[in-house]
Amino acid sequence: MLKARTIDSAARMCQPVARRNPRSGVQPMSGLSSGNTRVLRFVLHCMLGDIRTDLRDAVRALRRSPGFTLLAVLTLAVGMSVNTVAFTVVDALLLRRPAFAEVDRLGWIFAATRGNPLGGVSLAQYEALRGDAHSLDRIVAEGRLPLRWRSQGRTEQVWSLVVSAEYFQALGVRPEAGRLFGESDSGSDVAVVSHAFWTGKLAAAPPGDATISLNERVFAVVGVLPAGFQGPGGVYAPEVWVPLERRLALGLPSELALPGRDWLTLVGRRRPGVTASQAAIELTAILRRTDTAGVPGSGGIRARFAPMADGHPESRALWFVAAVGMTAVAVVLLIACFNVAGLLIARASTRQREMAVRSTLGASPGRLVRQLVTEGFVLAVLAGSLALSLSLASGSLLSTFALPAPIPQQLNLAPGWQSVLFTLLLVLVAALLPTLLPARYAVRQDLQQVLVSDAGTATRTAARARARRIFQACQVAGSTMFLALAVLFVGSFRHVASADLGFDTHGVLVATADPETHGRQPQQAEMFFTGLEERLLRDPRVRGAAVSTGIPYSLGRLRRTTLGVGGQDCRTDKCLGVEMFVVTPGYLKAMHIPLLGGRDLADKDRVAGGGILVSRATARRLWPGRNPIGETVTVGTARELAEVVGITGDVGAPGLFGVQPPPQVYRAMRSADYAGDRIAVVVGAQGDPAPLADTIRRAGSEIDPRLPIGSVQTMTDHLQLPFWAPRVAAWFLGICGTLALLLATVGLLGVVSTAAAQRTREFGIRMALGASGGSILRLVLSEGFVVTAAGGVLGLLAARGLAAVLGAALVGVRAGDPWPYAAAAALQAAVALLACLDPARRAMRSDLVAVMRSEH
Asked: Is residue 75 domain-resident?
């Protein structure tokens, strides 16, 4: 009767608000009778009630143990936060789809050759593709160029994107303010600016009223792009967009229209029903009909249509790195879960009587498991919230790992909804994984033995202790693995950073300018750089200054040529390939490159047939065991004769990045060499070179205000780009290793402390029977060192295997070198000793009388 009344009362509480309409006869839930509706409402009410009860009990249980709760939440938050941050980076680089209209139909168009599968296209190729391609309904172009921006009597360089008229319409972009230019503006001097440029440098002037001076021509600012918009070109963040059709008005060099100048990137939109492969076939046929680099019918070229929704092809090469990184941070989370599992197992021993009472009162094993899982879920939710908050504040940390390129960059690393979903997945993992084994122990116990006596307690305690030791050994294995890899990669980076590169890496300043892009003829550029060099040489803070077409470790900027000896014809014979530095006299002094023999370059060498310098590696290859000074060589396929007048030291450290210093040659600059698109001025300083940056910019502005200095970097900053990968690898593994060591130390402290507490009575009896404190100390320490030794061996074996796989990324160290593994093992052992000392000291002070009193 009581049960029936309770059900009837609950059913009345769950009755729907909307009742049968007596006029229409409509039921509140279509297809269900009133009785079925009441039963369904009652079942839902009971289910929700159970969930609320579980959550309330879980919160109460965790509030009774604030120390355990705080430690568990922080442990899980550490593991989850590094995973969330890592996923945010991977999502921004590889997973996030471009937010463009009809992105599934958009794709990049590359002119692929054997040496460059992601080649750009020339202006002639773009016009041919746009006019003849029928598989695409729109093809647009973009090109990156630095422009001169003159404001308030001062000239600065701004990075622009020169785009075709239909560019914004093809991407479906809407302006934040004003409008975007289109085909009707192809004959007008109009520009669109980024949100940052508009607010920072134009004081948010209304579009239509604002103007900017670009390359000495006034452009009307007609619109502002939304904050964060960069176009489909990756991390490059242009400041100004101008029409491609106005390139002549901007004074851009006419050479950009030559067939061989592949400076444009194309984006196309497929017609409905056209596949990427079909579009590529048609585009290839058009390219092969087009004159490329002055060679009609270039048969080796092919078009490649890369769907934009699949991500940029350059980014796909990062998938292996991303997989390795996500695996590493997943191991950190696994270590954190093992740590919490150990804490829960230890806590289960103090809750045996509680679980037994619950079972006696009718709680089923499933009900107990659900309660423990709910507690784990509450811990995981708290940890997930903290991890998400930490990931939101990780932008400044991630910015230290940004690619140090001398162009404006922007990578949106703010966690999006994908990161939130990923964190929810981590919450589920962190809720279930640590609670499975403790729940198993909770339901597999003899209730009578727990409630009546301590029989079987030793067996249960031993089983739990064994499980905790296994978990702890896994944590130590992961920690040791990370430590060994971190030591390997930190050693590799230290070798890179301290390597003798053959020139001064600290006291040199490098300034670059693009005379061709800014419309300067070679004679004008020569006057500019010669005047700048003369001014710098008069500065007492300067030990040397010179001009060069390239500097060491500049990606893709060094010239290459061939050297022929003994009458070799490099057009038909196999000659030695060398790196060629075209420099003004004084380059060796400015860079502090040693002159090993002969003389330096002089003004008389600035003519055809003048003297050249060869590096020691070149001399060894061409004249082994001989002095090459006075020898005559042929330079390049043009067979220009030159005399070797000096020998220099090698630029590049032996074995750096797995290669030996390449053969090098130095030739004096001539007037025609100033026609390049980027020329560098190297300045050797007597002390810190950084204060000379303002001097260089001011001098350049005074000599030619229309040719701005693009970038000014110390050589240390310049080397950040080629050395970026080993630095990031060392930092990443170092962070993972530190976190893993911290988690493993906390876990080991918990294992040893729990084991020592469970053996307090035993230690007291041993002390009463005459055992010394030292013997008790050894017993407790052995508990921790057995676990540490087992986990350490497994971790070192795992680290050795992974180092063999990643060995190609190591510089100056080998995967088989024993010292990194010995250092990791020693550090792990030292930390384990510190973690075990406090429980050991407490065990030494065990008092049998105090123990017996506490038990009664």
From this structure: no
